[in-house]
Amino acid sequence: MTTANISSTDILEDSLKGIPRLQTNPARWNGEGWRSFTGALRSQNIEVCEKRHTCLVYATDSGGLACGLPHGVALAGSAELISSILKQAQIHRVPVTVKGGGLTTEGESVAFGGLQLDMRAMNRVLAVDAKNMTVRTQAGIYWHTLGEVLRRDGLDYLSAPLNMTSSVGGTLSVGGIDINSPRLGCSADQAVSLQVVTPTGEIKECSESENPELFERVLLGYGQFGVITEATMRVRKFTPLTMHYFYYGSLREAMEDLQLLVRGDAADYCGILTVLDKAVNLLVAFDSDERERAFFADWRGRLRGHGQLGFALRMAWYYALRPWRIGEALYLLGRKQALEPAFKPEHHLEKNKIVDRTVVFSNSVWKFWGGRRMVIPDLATSAEKFVEAVERGNAVCRKYFPRYTLYCVGIKLSGRRERYELSCIPPDAEGFAYGCEFEPILGGEAYSREYLQAFKNEIYDIGVEMNTSYYRFGGMMKGYIRRVFGNELVDKHLAMKRAADPAMILNPDVIF
Amino acid sequence: MNTADNNGPFNNGAMSGYEKCTGCGVCTLTCPVWHQTRDIMLTVCGRSRVLQSGGTPEDMRESITACVLCGACAAVCPAGVDTVGLTTELRMGLAGAAERRAPRGSFSAGVKASGKLFFPGAAMRRDGELMRRAASLLGADGFALFDDAGISGLAGEMEAGIRPEPEELKNFIRSMSGVTEIAAADGFLHRHLRQWLPDVRVSGLGETLLRKRDIKGALKAGDLYIIETRGYHADHTRLVTFYDRMRLETGCGLNTSLQRAAIPTGAASRQTAGRLDTAEQARWILHKRRPARIVAESVEDLEVFKKIPGGPEAVHILELVPAAAACAKRLTA
Questions:
Q1: Domains of chain B: total
Q2: Residue numbers of A between 124 and 153 with CB closer than 8 Å to B
Q3: Which of A153-167, A286-300, A380-394, B9-23 has the lowest mean pLDDT?
Q4: Owning domain of residue A135
């Protein structure tokens, strides 16, 4: 349970300030071969930093619950360098854990020994092809940096996580969901072609026409079948957007309306964000005035959500009759007053349209939901299972935390793809999948690791029971993969992994 | 109020909130050192993580000295870490910092200033013509040119990691007891002047000049306006709106990123050990942009842009004045 008397500003609530974080998980690799491995790399002028304070910087990921220490860190400067590293890693059987933005939440990018390969040194945009509307970029680049470069040409990427420090390569390896995913699909589906360094160190180009098997394995492949070093992706013209909010007192009604909009392609962007179970926000946004007008002509009347004034009056009436719930009412009011200006900052508005919405949203995500521990278990379901999965997950949130936020989106599928097998896309999804993140508001409370992990596991268990999947932050996890997908499918992919990575050194323990 | 007596010149003691760092990396998106090196260890994010892991300033000497203290990271940090204060304090914690003190003028205990002052800064003092222009323009608004060599020297030492002598600081604060407003060209001073002199309004040279209609009116749609980054980021919440309105009114471009942080050249940094290539920063600011003219607030930035081969005409904001006067004459005619 909670230990509220411990300051939330301590290093970790259950450690002592000033004492370095230590590897809490038992070492999965005993260091055998490390010296000969680094010796071989240094003979090729590849620098491996083994300084303790450098390794400690990589001790955890955004989740903040899994802690491990690499034996050393290498900055990935080129595909050739990565190739040399992986070749030596195969020879010396040294695990290599790849890190981009490090926005995993279950320790997927944390090295429990071995080499940590920091991809962020590979973050140059190589070519912008405005004629064919594609960009070629190194894969360690943050989406935000990519967006910054594309904007100089009046362009933008299609869809990316609402998180400025996700890397392109990491995102393509797990999925990547945006509030325009109901129209444009997950980020991985933007990829036109990739340069990949295989676990055995071969540098290969792949696409739907060139090495298609590798292309399908690497996309949504949890980093098991290669390190993505370059990517060619589709881009679009940059547009500011207009946004509208509709307010619901019922989560179920909001979810049903979200699905209505997703199925009907009614908005360019849509998603659900809850403040309380009885204060649910359905946001819709548009890239063009035409789409906005069409929405209000054809769809608005079918939604059960209220405008701001109507909903405020309903809430005022509700709490007037229940004065003992004044604390809840004040929380709601405070949250509204904090969130609204943050989502519409004056310096990001032009002619009442939001400019650089990814910056606006990402800043708000970090400001209001960020922290030393990002506790965001999620579920990805078919359309049919969506409402039940969210309601069950919501009940788990209620059990563990007084305040929490749910964030739900639709994800357009790109037909039947091999890449979807054993991925964040649930096996029974047709046309669209739906995702929901369950995010407790931790506030100043100090929760133990065990408490937070127990919460996450209970959400993940819903996925096992309902035969769904997990998207974005959580991704698929070793402890769940067989229970969710069954032995036959997992063994099929494990055999492919063993063939591609004989020493099983690349991103070990993430799913296999 | 003498805040130096109460809290010291920096947010010392709490080490500027490094423990709040979540490691999100948003600060790196605006960091010029990150932009050029892509090495997390050389960023404030890396420094905070080292501290959280029990590291010492000596463990990150290279990182601490690489920072140009532009403050862009502070403007965007979602956790509100005082990144500039943190790095400055870490510099003061490096062994040997105090030995770097160079001879310079000090403050006279008996001197008293009053009213509105203009601090030209070290770079502008080297350019007599620009300083005269500034003094003349600001003088019309009641600003008196102040001999700020002493405080400039102190700022240089602080940037190098030398903690100010408390007595010297007290003398400076006492000497400013009658001052109501300061326009300071050196943006590094802004945060410290606000701490030391909380009742005094502190503005940058650019902001002060842009309040004049003829100066703002001389900016054109094809101009790329280079904001002095240190002062801008030291008061980002207020100035982001000020400059955004100016951009919309004049149609000029700004050296701002998507996050509305100002992209620095790093030229104002007094750190000779810095690893930042200022020309590369200028080229990144100009990347895919074709401005007709560069208008810079800071003398240091101006010098960098003037050296870019094939670059556009580059002028200081003070040099807009003749154009403004001519424009005004035409309007009158």
A1: 3
A2: 140, 142, 144-145, 147-149, 151-153
A3: B9-23
A4: 125-237
What does the pLDDT read at residue B101?
63
* Nearest-angstrom CA–CA distance, A184 and A255: 20
Q: Are residues A470 and A433 in the same domain?
A: yes
pLDDT for res B98: 60
Q: Is A226 left (phi over 0), alpha (psi -120 to 50) or beta?
A: left
Residue B310 exposed, middle or buried by CB count within 10 Å (0-12, 13-18, 19+)? exposed
- Looking at beta carbons, which residues of chain B come within 8 Å of A22? none
Strand order in the sheet with A115-118: A72-75, A115-118, A96-99
Q: What's residue B111's pLDDT? A: 66
Query: Are B49 and A56 inside 8 Å of each other by CB?
Result: yes
Whether residue B223 is found in the same domain as residue B310: yes
Low-confidence ranges of chain B (pLDDT < 70): 1-15, 97-111, 271-274, 323-333
pLDDT at B108: 58
Give the residue among A272, A249, A273 at the shortest CA–CA distance from A260: A272
Q: Which value, in Å, is the radius of gyration of the alpha carbons in chain A?
A: 23
CB of B42 within 8 A of CB of B63?
yes
pLDDT the model gives residue B160: 87
Q: Which of A144, A370, A372 sits opposite B258 (nearest CB)?
A: A144
Domain tally, chain A: 3
- Out of B22, B53, B257, the one facing A371 most closely (by C-beta) is B22
CA dist., res. B275 & res. A70, Å (int): 28
Would the CB atoms of A356 and B258 count as touching at under 8 Å?
Answer: yes
> In terms of Cα–Cα distance, which of B56, B170, B62 is closest to B108?
B170
A53 with B53: Cβ contact below 8 A: yes
Give the mean pLDDT of A448-475. 86
Residue B165 belongs to domain spanning: 114-204
Residues 6+ apart with CB under 8 A from B13: none
Structure tokens at A346: 């004056």
State the complex-level ipTM: 0.88
> What is the pLDDT at residue A65?
87
Band (A21; pLDDT cuts 50, 70, 90): very low
Q: Is residue A89 part of a domain?
A: yes
Angle ∠(A72,A197,A83) on CA atoms, nearest 5: 50
Domain match, A211 and A274 both: no
What angle, 0 to 180 degrees and rounded to 10, lies between the N-to-C axes of helices A326-343 and A308-320? 160
Helix (H) or strand (E) holding B301: helix B299-306
Q: Concatenate the DSSP letters of all residues of B174-220 into one string.
A: HHTTEEEEEEES-THHHHHHHHH-TTSEEEEHHHHHHTSHHHHHT--
Q: Is residue B109 part of a domain?
A: no
- Which residue(s) pair with A280 in the sheet? A248, A274
Considering A194, A211, A237, which residue would you say is the last residue of a domain?
Answer: A237
The C-alpha R_g of chain B, in whole angstroms, comes to 20
**Best residue of B18, B31, B53, B235 to probe chain A, by most A CBs closer than 10 Å:** B53
Which of A78, A144, A152, A362 has the highest number of chain B CBs within 10 A, making it the mutation to test binding with B? Answer: A144
CATH number of the domain that A164 lies in? 3.30.465.10
Say what the pLDDT of residue A67 is.
86
Residue A121 sits at the chain B interface (C-beta within 8 Å): yes
> Cα separation of B55 and B155, whole Å?
27
Give the tokens for residue A507.
């991103």
Task: Report residue A352 CA to chain centroid gap.
Answer: 29
Question: Looking at the structure, do residues B229 and B310 belong to the same domain, yes or no?
Answer: yes
Give all strands (DSSP E) within chain B, no chain letters: 114-119, 143-145, 178-184, 201-204, 223-226, 253-254, 293-296, 313-316
More confident residue, A10 or A404: A404
Q: What is the DSSP letter of A369?
A: I
**Residue A506 lies inside a defined structural domain of this protein:** no
Last residue of a domain, one of B204, B220, B255: B204
